[in-house]
Amino acid sequence: MLHTVIHGDPGGAPPLLIAHGLFGSARNWGVLARRLSDDRQVLAVDMRNHGASPRSPRHGYEEMAGDLAEVIAAHGGRADVLGHSMGGKAAMVLALTRPGLVGSLVVADIAPAAYTHTQLPLVRAMRGLDLSVVATRRDADAALAGEVPDPAVRAFLLQSLELKGDRPRWLLNLDALEAEMPRIMGFPGIEARFGGPALFLSGGASDYVGAEHADLIRGLFPRAEQATIPDAGHWLHAEAPREFETALRAFLDRAVTGP
Predict the structure, then answer these.
(1) 120: left (phi over 0), alpha (psi -120 to 50) or beta
(2) DSSP characters for 49-98?
């Protein structure tokens, strides 16, 4: 089963399951998860091939949705689900294929579509880092700078570099992520619809979700609402955490009480 960080105790509302994006982890969501646990239990997972979760050569959305279903089954059998980027695609596949497990769905800055870009350069940059000469995170940051010029992206990647123990290591299965990158960038063809409440929350400065995706989203998720956080990019929950939290709480409250 996926490594799960549990915040808070079970309450009247179903738990909220949080699925992070590519190269992320449950701990990336720690501050928000703790804040949201004031009125419900929050379950933040490490996705397969990330963090402390099991490794597998398979990294498609069918497998990831199955992982999330297993966590939900272990925590009462039904949950509201929030997913960002890769985690958002996994959450969508879960809702489409196992709708009985999902109360409400929140998808952060991703559409149910295939994307033409790839994250292989980041995988190769991490693989190319000579960990034998890395003693501190500052060392790693300096060594990555040539291949990853954006300091914010480097900081994000380096959250998955474990410096404890005998030697540094990546808490990512880079072999599987590289091999399965076409599946990660894609989206499976599913002839189903999720009839529950859904919120697609995007960053205004991000190009991951555009007007061209609106019909696709509504076709699979007929009750979908779409909202934008102005000036936030793809990591909208980190760039605008209070605005993200406000929008998320308002949606989840509406989903419970009705329009």
Answers:
(1) alpha
(2) TBTTSPP-S---HHHHHHHHHHHHHHTTS-EEEEEETHHHHHHHHHHHH-
Asked if 163 contacts 198 with a C-beta cutoff of 8 angstroms, the reply is no
Please list the residue range(s) of the chain that carry CATH number 3.40.50.1820: 4-115+186-257
Between CA 106 and CA 123 the distance in angstroms is 27
Mean pLDDT by 10 residues, the chain (259 residues): 97 95 97 96 98 98 98 98 98 98 98 95 97 94 96 96 92 98 97 98 97 97 97 96 98 76
Catalytic sites, residue numbers: 85, 175, 234
What would the DSSP string read from start to end of 209-239?
S-GGGHHHHHHH-TTEEEEEETT--TTHHHH
The hierarchical CATH code for the domain 4-115+186-257 is 3.40.50.1820
The pLDDT of residue 258 = 55
Burial class (CB in 10 A: 0-12, 13-18, 19+), 105: buried
pTM reported for the whole predicted model: 0.97
Calpha distance 205→231 (Å, rounded): 5
